[in-house]
Amino acid sequence: MNFSEAFKLSSLLCRFSPDGKYLASCVQYRLVVRDVSTLQIRQLYTCLDQIQHIEWSADSLFILCAMYRRGLVQVWSLEQPEWHCKIDEGSAGLVASCWSPDGRHILNTTEFHLRITVWSLCTKSVSYIKYPKACQQGVTFTRDGRYMALAERRDCKDYVSIFVCSDWQLLRHFDTDTQDLAGIEWAPNGCVLAVWDTCLEYKILLYSLDGRLLSAYCAYEWSLGIKSVAWSPSSQFLAVGSYDGKVRLLNHVTWKMITEFGHPAAINNPKIVVYKEAEKGPPLGLGRLSFPPPLPLAAPLSASESKYEIASVPVSLQTLKPATDRANPRMGVGMLAFSADSYFLATRNDNVPNTVWVWIQKLRLLVVLEQLAPVRSFLWDPQQPRLAICTGGSKVYLWSPAGCVSVQVPGEGDFPVLSLCWHSSGDSLALLSKDHFCLCFLDTEGGPHTALEQRDSMRRP
């Protein structure tokens, strides 16, 4: 692994372009676009206020910067740096902004979710979509960019509208059997729309493109329900994380549950590999100690090196007792992610916050990784089964079927890694802290082949 120098950053706003050529980052009201191969600054743009959201267009030719406090969106062009666009929502305000799949329309959601305004960069026309619902995930596009599904709330009832993105014409409009719809998401193949209800009622509904209800699933009643949902990239599985600490896997043929994964506080199965992060003690050169200690010894504790050790079962994991008398208790499966080949599923149970669980398609638990600190984020390599994890410390953790490693981020002072962002090639990884970011370059010689060989060996009896 190699690391770049650290660059300034604000609000964790750092994004690779979809084509992988550029890296955009924000420093207060400035937008910096770098060339990924050299990290040299390609363009520098100045916005009218502090940037709160950035997003690349699908073709990587434009980038939008949203300033929610001012109700403004500014759009910049990489091909024509002198061209720029400003969208002012005025008194209507602004709470969300995103690109349409064609990269030539911008969807702005006004305050109180009164409407969505669709702005065309080509014709300068404006159209409006009424009744968008304020929920966890209320807008979703199909992967091919042809259709948009929108969650709506009108007359105290939930609806879904499906629009054709080419001309924004309404294709289907239907009501959903939900009390308080919490989110919607298309399957990667664009054939099925998942709709889930508020956490107060366990219900997930599957609709076809023409609005037909294909199936409804409820695991239990009279308790907190769904917390997270994730489609596998193959569209064959839908993983549903619940407040009872279990993940339920639905199949794409019957939409029935094929298995459920629990997250017990103790691991007893000897077939499960448990990696525990442990701090490396510094070598004690007692005869050479000086006072005051030199800088390396005076480094903060969080910068100390660590390694993974394989624990012998049974293993008791660190658990957190949730405060059930408060809103949003820290319990249940809050993070789910499939690997790019749909073979692995990584999960985190919020009341076992230091642990990442990795399951395989054989429907069993393969690996448990217990960290020294609560897991903040994990993300799969888009090209091969390799999982990156961060815990808010100055280290990044990588797991693959070949094993796992803990890597210290070099540099002066502490570099708390709060978020991660993979390059589309899987060759590099952006590590984001509160005020800085750096790139981590991974050696990929033989990497994909080695990972596939490891995976195939696990398939053999």
From TrEMBL:
GO BP annotations, alphabetical order: mitotic spindle assembly; positive regulation of non-motile cilium assembly
GO CC terms in record: centrosome; ciliary basal body; MWP complex
Listed transmembrane segments: none
InterPro entries: Centrosome-WD_assoc, WD40/YVTN_repeat-like_dom_sf, WD40_repeat_dom_sf, WD40_rpt
Protein name, as recorded: WD repeat containing, antisense to TP73
Organism: Marmota marmota marmota
